[in-house]
Amino acid sequence: MINRLRRIGLWGRGAVLAVPYLWLLLFFLVPFLIVFGISLSESVIAQPPYAPLVEWLVDEDAGTTKLQLLLNLSNYLRLGGDDLYVLAYLNSVKIALVTTICCLLIGYPMAYAIARAEPAKRGPLMMLVVLPFWTSFLIRIYAWIGILKANGVIDNLLQWSGLTTAPFELLYSDWAVYIGMTYCYLPFMVLPLYATLEKMDPTLLEAAADLGCRPWKAFLTVTLPLSLPGIIAGSLLVFIPSVGEFVTPELLGGPDTLMIGRVLWNEFFANRDWPVASAVAIALLLFLVVPIMIFQHVQGRQAEAER
Amino acid sequence: MAVQPIRKPTRLEPWQDPSQTPYVRIEKVTKAFGDFIAVDDVSLSIYRGEFFALLGGSGSGKTTLLRMLAGFETPTEGKIFIDGVDMAGIPPYERPVNMMFQSYALFPHMTVEQNVAFGLKQDGVAKSEIRERVGAMLDLVQLGRFAKRKPHQLSGGQRQRVALARSLVKRPKLLLLDEPLGALDKRLREQTQFELVNIQEKLGVTFIVVTHDQEEAMTMSSRIAVMNHGVIAQTGTPTEIYEYPQSRFVAEFIGSVNMFEGRVVEDQSDHVLIRSEDAGCDLYINHAVAVPSGATVGVAVRPEKIALSKEPPAGSDGRNVTTGIVREIAYLGDVSIYLVELKTGKTVRVTAPNLVRRTEMPITWDDEVYLTWRPFAGVVLTQ
């Protein structure tokens, strides 16, 4: 009887767990394998624009039928050999890093202030952080164009105040990309930081002060180490999508703002070279898997520590 | 509730010695949070080496008072002096006090050793000395083996000892303890009470402890201040507080007590006679009270000071003797608690030690019994 119940219980557990696994299999693993397959094929002018990986070769003269698997590694070799891709990857990492650091520097004080605000005010303040999400992302980026362009809000303000005399354009530069991306990803930094800072017991700071620790030192020795999981989570949430970012650099960046997302788009739509585009995507994915795994590892350790 | 203070009586207690200057002086301190007055015009003097308890229920202002001593709250009015220095404007990290927090507030990302060393590091103590002092302190609280553990790997009792070690390692002159034993179970609490007193005597530190547990306050402290609604109801040694409560609140808060209402009919310098409808007899008390004849007063009699018998007590003059019927008996092993309903309808609580082993009790349910107590047993309460 008990064994039967246990068997039913195992079945039930298996069924429940199967749903998310099935989802991941269908919508993550299968597309990944398709893209991976394309990345190993050859570009052809056809519909679809790549050669099949597996072919039946029927040689009637020899009377043989062969199953041919052609793996074309040249797409990946091209990624390593062509400066364009290496530079695009490096530049993407640089922009993502700058964005992450800017988000951290702006987001940490914000999250700290909200976490230390009166409980009744925290909800509305968090609401304000999330509020921009209610407007379309594209519209917000277009708004930044209006702010940053020559004769835009910032330029007019600078000229009016007499700080500059000639028109001054921030738009279409790396700076505009940094500003736009920091703006876009800031909530992703604030939310996890707020979650860890809000959870922190304020008596720990009292204890530090009681033991003779000055406030700034208490911040460095108590608050900062305890908010490390939030810093890591927030940084990864900003860094990972930033590396592959396409829309913001496309709209705000200059012609020389080279990012891997743009390269990918170009290969796919302008050059119609699906295999190379897929190889770029796979390389980007592998490149991002490492930080994701670090993230998982830290989260696992944190969960263990809390038990 | 017959816990005796474990402190040995010394020559002259510092609070009785006019030549002593108090180590902590709280002068007319008031703390208001908006409209709510947490601490209301409190004055206290605490002497070097004392184990002083602030006793009260939740919301009595005891923790607020402690937090003002530590510097986490500033008094709305009044002054606090520690070792003669006015503490106004002095931040917590510059005060010569350490505090043991109710939640222990151990740093979760540091090991036991690092937690204890934290305070010494802030003072820039040399590394070798830190190691030595932390080691000695961990030995004192018997946690040497756990030095490398993180707080979440310790039991509640061990965490409590880490918190104590961390607050003592800086050798403060004054240690503030906020419900230090609140999170421990009863057995561990009793054991720790004695440990705390031993450590305090060994190190000669002045302890101020906040507690809501009257038993804890009675066993550990040299003096107790009973707080109620932000006001100090009474300050005194555990014996004074228990045997000579000055108000109904104190009498009822510390231990259990039977309260009789009555009218003063005779008020002499060596005794007072009170006629009580409640008790059903005259109450004779061998101390004087300064109230006009005919005034209504309360008389508190502790349950353990009342004797029960089935026979009328010999040589009785009818004073301090009344009769009733046993309604409830609670057998606690060492003592039994009897609830006796008097003829007047009032229920009186009596505790009696179980002196002999018995399976059949001489006094049992529905027995009619005599309740007697000696002239010193009652305390007249005018407040």
TrEMBL record, chain A:
It is found in: Cell membrane. The chain crosses the membrane at residues 21-40, 95-115, 127-147, 175-197, 218-240, 274-295. SUPFAM superfamilies: MetI-like. It holds the Pfam family BPD_transp_1. InterPro entries: MetI-like (IPR000515), MetI-like_sf (IPR035906). Keywords: Cell membrane, Membrane, Transmembrane, Transmembrane helix, Transport. The keyword Cell membrane applies. This is Putrescine transport system permease protein. The lineage of its organism: Bacteria, Pseudomonadati, Pseudomonadota, Alphaproteobacteria, Rhodospirillales.
From TrEMBL, chain B:
Keywords: ATP-binding, Cell inner membrane, Cell membrane, Membrane, Nucleotide-binding, Translocase, Transport. Its EC number is 7.6.2.11. Residues 24-254 form the ABC transporter domain. PROSITE patterns: ABC_TRANSPORTER_1, ABC_TRANSPORTER_2. It holds the Pfam family TOBE_2. The complex is composed of two ATP-binding proteins (PotA), two transmembrane proteins (PotB and PotC) and a solute-binding protein (PotD). The lineage of its organism: Bacteria, Pseudomonadati, Pseudomonadota, Alphaproteobacteria, Rhodospirillales. The gene is potA. Part of the ABC transporter complex PotABCD involved in spermidine/putrescine import. Responsible for energy coupling to the transport system. Belongs to the ABC transporter superfamily. Spermidine/putrescine importer (TC 3.A.1.11.1) family. PANTHER family: PUTRESCINE TRANSPORT ATP-BINDING PROTEIN POTG, SPERMIDINE/PUTRESCINE IMPORT ATP-BINDING PROTEIN POTA. InterPro entries: AAA+_ATPase, ABC_SmlMolc_Importer, ABC_transporter-like_ATP-bd, ABC_transporter-like_CS, Mo/tungstate-bd_C_term_dom, P-loop_NTPase, PotA-like, Transp-assoc_OB_typ2. It catalyses: ATP + H2O + polyamine-[polyamine-binding protein]Side 1 = ADP + phosphate + polyamineSide 2 + [polyamine-binding protein]Side 1. One of its GO terms (molecular function) is ATP binding. This is Spermidine/putrescine import ATP-binding protein PotA. It comes from Azospirillum rugosum.
